Amino acid sequence: MSTFDNLVKDLTRDVHRVQPKDALQFCANTTENAGPFIYDRGESPATSPLSTANPNPFANFDPATPTAQNPGDYLHPPTSAIFARRTSVSAESIAVDSGADEPLPVYPKTIEQTRRIKASIANNFIFRDLDEEQETGVISAMRELKIPRNEVVIRQGDAGDYFYVVESGQLNCYIRPEPLPPTWLTESPTNLNPQDMFVQPGYHPEFGRKVAECKEGQSFGELALMYGHPRAATVLSVEPSTLWSLDRITFRTIILKAAHRRRTMYEQFLATVTLLASLAPPERSKIADALVSKTYQDGEAVVRQGEMGETFFFIEEGEALVTKLQQSEDGHVQDIPVGLLSKGDYFGELSLLRRAPRAATVSAVQRQVASVKPRLKVAALDAHAFTRLLGPLREIMERQAEKTY
Fold first, then answer.
1. pLDDT tens sequence across 63-102
2. Contacts of 209 (CB under 8 A, 6+ apart)
């Protein structure tokens, strides 16, 4: 009987003997404790993880030394890593609907400083999808820091709390190979033992290999804004530098409170939309979570006739003009106004319902100079969310489309 067959036999016996509440986890733990093994056709003593005679029958296989395998052994065992539980991460809870609305910090900045911060965070995955309100709040809350030369801004292994944007100066990033010395987080790096120091070119004596440089307009430490994960690198200033810093609590408060306000506003708005009158409040809440706002300049087209569409729109505020290309008697093709949409109206559904090109062009109306009317602002719903959330309303929209278009 092969080693694998013996393992399965012993595992089955132990499951019957122990009768664990979570049989799958018991099997995973048992397999992991058994260590690495290969399938062979040779004889191997049967051993159970509960046995005492030989707790690890596979100890003679050294994972550091590759073992030659028989070409016929086409099956290979999974590594124990697949049974390992993923490390948990967490962050503070933020009360977004509490009665107390403490003012968020605001630090003054010049127009040029604001522009540089915007440019620095524009392509960062954490800030990429912020709306205008959230971005303004985040930038306003960044505090200026003056950093002297040779100061450690963040230290590998420390819990992260801040994100930084470089206003001026230069900082280097270093990574020390794991595991870190036992006294790394409790003592000054200058107290490290000589054997823990680095002498190779491109290495800092204490902090390890240099992996990056952070100069004006660059940023670092963004993972700290999501959760208190240990820092992956050490960042050291190599010249006097100026940074803009943002802490995690402030960032999450700005994002979550803005999202909560937007969700509440959408729920109130969707309650006024005739199309959604038949939906229950929880269903409208799901739609509110999926909407994305966008504002258009006067005369700017939201959708164009003939284009394929992937988005459905509600009008939050302002007005939109609906036009269609028509050929006149003299052969000229021109845009003919066919409708005017206002708050609570919707458009773009026909292209998604019938998988057809847009039937008309919808543009923001051209307002008068002294007009007090707001600019066109729409709430967009992508094709996937449209199908998933508005499927029950398909017949209603089909009937309405036949009247409108």
1. 444 444 454 444 455 555 545 455 455 555 555 555 456 7
2. 174, 175, 176, 177, 198, 202, 203
Q: What is the mean pLDDT of residues 195-206?
A: 80
Structure tokens at 231: 């820092």
Give tens-digit pLDDT for 245-290.
Answer: 998 888 888 887 777 877 888 888 888 887 787 778 888 888 888 8
Q: How far apart are the C-alpha atoms of 313 and 293, rounded to whole Å?
A: 10
Residue 118's DSSP bridge partners are: none
Q: Any residues with CB less than 8 A from the CB of 300 and at least 6 apart, and which?
A: 363, 364, 376
User: Does residue 335 register a pLDDT over 80?
Assistant: yes
Average pLDDT, integer, range 161-165: 90
d(CA 114, CA 108): 9
8 Å CB contact between 54 and 45: yes
Radius of gyration of the chain (CA): 31
What amino acid occupies position 327? Answer: Q
Residue pair 326/336 in contact (Cβ under 8 Å)? The answer is yes
Contact 34, 59 (CB under 8 A): no
Q: Helix H segments across 106-233?
A: 111-121, 132-140
Q: Output the six-digit token pair for 191.
A: 């107290």
Q: Tally helices (H) and strands (E) across the chain.
A: 9, 17
Least confident span in 2-16, 113-127, 170-184: 2-16
pLDDT for residue 356: 83
Q: Within a 13 Å sphere around the CA of 126, how many CA atoms are in the beta-carbon half?
A: 19
Residue among 377, 375, 322, 387 at smallest CA distance from 349? 387
Helix (H) or strand (E) holding 234: strand 234-237
Residues contacting residue 6 through CB under 8 Å, at least 6 positions apart: 44, 45, 46, 47
CA 36, distance to chain mean position in Å, is 35
d(CA 266, CA 261): 9
The answer to whether 109 and 117 have CB atoms below 8 angstroms apart is: yes
Whether pTM exceeds 0.85: no
